[in-house]
Write a structure and sequence with these properties.
Strand content: over 45%
Order of helices and strands: EEEEEEEEEEEEEEEE
Number of strands: 16
Shape: rod-shaped
């Protein structure tokens, strides 16, 4: 899902917060967790994560945090072996006299490159030249709402960059030999690339 109907506060008035990753963001691989823990009443703190919006159980990330901090790295969360999906992050503050405070955020773990389908017919790599004619280079994705950027290159030169669907770029035919490269990156930073060789030929 890319939309949520859930309000989870990510910062208290005293600065107790998880700053990075941002709430409702996409993450992959080893994720740096940055946040703030106030000094007042501090005893210890810990990071933990659980599956889903409201986890039934939590797994601790790294050792206990023994010092308060302001916008510093609190730990590193390795999501490499986790299934793609929604996870909750939680920062637990244990105060003097055993008082407990918590702040949470929700993220989507995505370690899978996007699935890109090339939709242009290159006619077996041989395209007859016609004056004033053009071809539409296009790709589609299973879930285009998770795509951050698509770039089209022809012989190494950038033709166009697209942030939103449809991912289609018109190109006026010019006789010659070409290599088309299309790269796509999703919101988590996963990348996929497509390439094809073709020739525009003239009978003259």
């Amino acid at each position: 899902p890319t939309l949520y109907d859930l309000e989870i506060p990510d910062e208290r008035d005293d600065g107790f917060s998880i700053t990075i990753p941002e709430n409702y963001s996409f993450v992959k691989g080893r994720v740096r967790i940055i946040g703030s823990i106030p000094e007042d009443g501090f005893e210890t703190a810990r990071l933990q994560f659980g599956t889903g919006l409201n986890p039934g159980s939590w797994i601790q990330i790294g050792p206990d945090i023994t010092t308060p901090s302001l916008y510093t790295r609190l730990g590193t969360w390795d999501t490499t072996d986790l299934e793609d999906g929604i996870y909750a992050l939680q920062l637990v503050l244990i105060q003097e006299r055993q008082g407990i405070e918590k702040v949470s955020s929700v993220v989507s773990v995505d370690n899978t490159p996007p699935s890109m389908i090339f939709t242009t017919d290159l006619a077996g790599g041989q395209i007859p030249f016609q004056p004033d004619d053009e071809i539409l280079f296009g790709v589609e994705f299973e879930n285009s709402s998770e795509i951050d950027q698509v770039e089209f290159y022809l012989n190494g030169d950038l033709l166009s960059s697209r942030k939103v669907a449809p991912y289609i770029v018109p190109w006026s035919l010019v006789p010659g030999e070409y290599e088309l490269q299309i790269t796509a990156q999703d919101l988590a930073g996963n990348e996929v690339e497509y390439s094809a060789l073709f020739e525009v030929f003239s009978d003259e």
